[in-house]
Amino acid sequence: MIIDVHAHYYPRRYLELIGRPGLPPAAAAALGGQDISERLALLDQADIDIQVLSVSQAQPYLPDPRAAAAALRLVLSGVPARFPRLKFIVPHLGGTLPFLLARISRKSADEVSGGLRTMYYDTVHGSAEALVSASRVYGPGRLLFGTDYPYCDEPQFRHHLSYLSEAGLGTGELDQVTGGTAAALLRVAGLPASWRGHVSHPVQSGWPKPVTARARNTTAKAQVMAMHAALGKMAPNRVSLLPNFAAAAGGMC
């Protein structure tokens, strides 16, 4: 089972409700114009079984340096220690963290590096060398495959998956990265091999309700639930819609 943990879906009505109708920008999101059937066809071509959609104010993911800073702020504030059941997925291999963690560990207490290693990191990057570094720093069990769809073109979309095999990971480790760890984290482990995904309401799945930062998100949240219902009809067994903790977690999800 291959699970893409980093993807987006922005219905036009949703973007209008949050006041950002111009997103996603065509220059950055080459696949932003695809409809659901085209998206599913692309997933089939890449042999991706499940795509997890982040629902938030259009762009929850921060640039790489800010992702690293956000992760460090969470650890330094003691959030992972106080809430060990709260799981964080940091985008883009954690930005600069794989390259700085040894130095951070020398300049700070051991609990900082330990806290960072309790988080998960998606593989949206493209560099096998960076993936090797991240695997050694966090361990392959902390890496989750992602594509950042629609912020890529079709060759880049496929490369997000194919480059994982260039990092020297063993077969078992590669299986972990491409879906094994995500299946356990998202509570879809142990399902039959013929299972092709799952559409689930976040609350029904035992996840906390989405956290919102502004009152105007109330209307958008209702639209998100409507979007979920529509996705369930259009793409049963292929899409998992989970809450995004960007507002509470400094932009990470």
Describe this protein's structure.
The chain has 253 residues and is mainly alpha-helical. The chain has one domain: TIM Barrel (Alpha-Beta Barrel). It is 41% helix and 9% strand. The chain is built from 10 helices and 6 strands. Strands 1-2-6 form a 3-stranded parallel sheet. It has a 3-stranded parallel sheet with strand order 3-4-5. Strand 4 (120-122), helix 7 and strand 5 form a beta-alpha-beta unit. The radius of gyration is 17 Å and the shape is globular. The model is unreliable at 59-63, 191-225 and 241-253 (pLDDT under 50).
What's a concise summary of this model?
By secondary structure, the protein is mainly α. It has helices spanning 12-17, 36-45, 64-76, 79-82, 97-107, 110-116, 128-138, 154-162, 171-185, 217-234, and strands at residues 3-8, 50-55, 89-90, 120-122, 143-144, 239-243.
Tell me the domain tally.
Answer: 1
Q: Specify Rg, calculated over alpha carbons.
A: 17 Å
> What is the overall number of helices?
10
What is the ordering of alpha helices and beta strands?
EHHEHHEHHEHEHHHE
* Main beta sheet: 3 strands, parallel
The CATH topology assignment is: TIM Barrel
Helix content: 40-55%
CATH architecture: Alpha-Beta Barrel
CATH class: Alpha Beta
Overall geometry comes to globular
Oligomer: single chain
Number of DSSP-assigned strands: 6
> CA-to-CA gap between the ends?
22 Å
Q: Report the β-strand fraction as a percent range.
A: 5-15%
Q: Quickly give the structural class.
A: mainly alpha
Strand order of the largest sheet: 1-2-6
Mean pLDDT: 75
Low-confidence stretches: 59-63, 191-225, 241-253
